[in-house]
Design a protein that fits this description.
The chain is mainly alpha-helical. Helix 3 packs across helix 6, helix 4 packs parallel to helix 7 and helix 16 packs parallel to helix 19. The longest helix has 36 residues.
Length: 455
């Protein structure tokens, strides 16, 4: 596949539903394979090492690693939006500058995150009240993960850039290769060499390093009009400011989500190892929903960004409607499947009946509300694509800071039940959707007036 800029661009000219599907499926399959990295760790560790090890891999350590990766990915989204707009506008010179600014930033930021994370690991896990019987394993897993996180973050930045110019296939191919490698290494290091948590962590970072190398190589050799040249890697300050202007609000948003997740994980930990293990297993089981929902969000951001850059506002709106309809249909089916297959899916991670029962209770009380989040994902992605990030971020932060966080800090200590923690999710999502959806239509009306389009 070539990324040569030409007069024909399927995202800005092709049949919308067809091109959305063509773009969407490699992303969702790739996301599922990326999720499979940690899921395989959890399955193998849970089955061959025990439920305490499962809680170590999928509990506090998973929350912290997810938080770091999502913060960086949100920053990377700013670069992807800028690049998609330049690509839609066929501005080759600015494409080159934006690519190399993003590359320089990702290298510097990932090294700093790796060092800070390694040093802060014990303190972070202690603050989260990680159970004593899993503390040592959690520290070992997390520190090894942070040593290799530079590769993870470089991959995320590179794959985001590739998708921004319409290539969602290569990131998929690379993830398939690396996921197979991760599974093989897990089996070798955990099952045969009995390295436990350390083996699972080493398998993950080696696999992610391979994916980073493949992505960087593709950016250097596989494209015509957007090509990574090592000697040109430097920061263009005005461009970096533009990329951070779009990406930083999303990073703050992910931090607030992460903060509430850390507080929730802390509360979950206080219920004991069984509940921590059930929460870890649940977080793996529902990953298919988040993979599909997130893939639609990435897709609409790219479609919105390229069509906005090309001056095709009507296609932006049609892309949003089409994405929303497809996401409701597909994600709705996943929600039903998760509810019907809760116990069999949880039993993949552990044979402990107490853990399975707690996990099934969690799924029953949270999964139905995922339908609300579909609207949040699509409308936020569409607004991000046209460069409107501040107000959607404030709305989302309102749902987190003014709804979920106070609920966890005030209501949970009063009513110390698992259900009290679980219900914080649908309440926050509903509050966010009630503000975000009207704002999208307000922005649509303003853009129509600006571009002299009919409502």
């Amino acid at each position: 596949m070539s990324a040569r800029i030409s007069d024909k661009n399927d995202i800005t000219d092709g049949i919308i539903w067809k091109q959305l599907l063509i773009f969407f499926f490699p992303i969702v399959i790739g996301t599922l394979f990326q999720q499979l990295y940690n899921t395989v760790d959890a399955v193998i560790v849970g089955r061959f090492v025990g439920k305490a090890a499962l809680a170590s891999v999928g509990g506090s350590a998973a929350v912290l690693t997810y938080q770091v990766v999502m913060f960086f990915t949100s920053l990377a989204n700013g670069a992807a939006v800028i690049i998609s707009q330049f690509f839609g506008a066929k501005n080759e010179r600015r494409l080159h500058d934006a690519l190399h600014t993003a590359a320089a930033f990702s290298i510097i930021a990932s090294i700093l995150i790796s060092i800070a994370g390694y040093i802060a690991t014990p303190a972070l896990l202690s603050v989260m009240k990680t159970p004593a019987d899993i503390m040592a394993d959690s520290v070992a897993y997390l520190r090894i993960y942070f040593l290799g996180i530079t590769a993870t973050l470089i991959y995320n930045m590179g794959s985001g850039i590739m998708r921004a110019v319409g290539d969602s296939r290569r990131p998929l191919y690379y993830l398939i290769v690396c996921c197979v490698l991760n599974i093989a290494l897990d089996i070798i290091l955990v099952v045969f060499f009995k390295l436990g948590i350390v083996g699972a962590a080493v398998a993950t970072i080696i696999s992610q390093a391979v994916s980073a190398v493949l992505v960087v190589r593709a950016l250097m050799t596989s494209y015509d009009m957007i090509r990574l040249v090592p000697k040109d890697i430097r920061i263009d300050l005005p461009l970096l400011k533009s990329e951070l202007r779009i990406g930083f609000p999303g990073g703050v948003q992910s931090c607030m989500y992460g903060l509430t997740n850390i507080i929730i994980q802390t509360s979950i930990n206080q219920f004991g190892t069984d509940t921590a293990a059930a929460w870890a297993a649940f977080g793996k089981v529902d990953s298919i929903f988040w993979a599909v929902s997130g893939a639609f969000g990435i897709s609409i951001t790219t479609f919105s960004g390229q069509n906005y850059g090309a001056g095709k506002l009507e296609r932006v709106y049609k892309s949003v409607r089409t994405s929303l309809a497809m996401s409701l249909a597909l994600c709705g089916s996943i929600i039903i499947g998760l509810l019907l297959l809760a116990r069999p899916l949880l039993s993949l991670f552990t044979s402990d009946e107490a853990v399975i029962s707690i996990g099934a209770y969690m799924m029953l009380n949270i999964v139905p509300s995922y339908a609300i989040f579909i609207f949040v994902e699509i409308f936020t992605g569409a607004l991000r694509g046209i460069g409107d990030v501040m107000i959607p971020t404030l709305i989302t932060l309102g749902g987190v800071c003014l709804v979920r966080l106070p609920w966890i800090l005030i209501v949970t200590p009063i009513r110390k039940e698992l259900f009290t923690i679980l219900v914080s999710y649908p309440i926050a999502w509903a509050a966010t959707a009630l503000l975000l959806i009207p704002y999208y239509f307000y922005r649509k009306k303003k853009l129509n007036a600006k571009w002299n389009l009919s409502p």
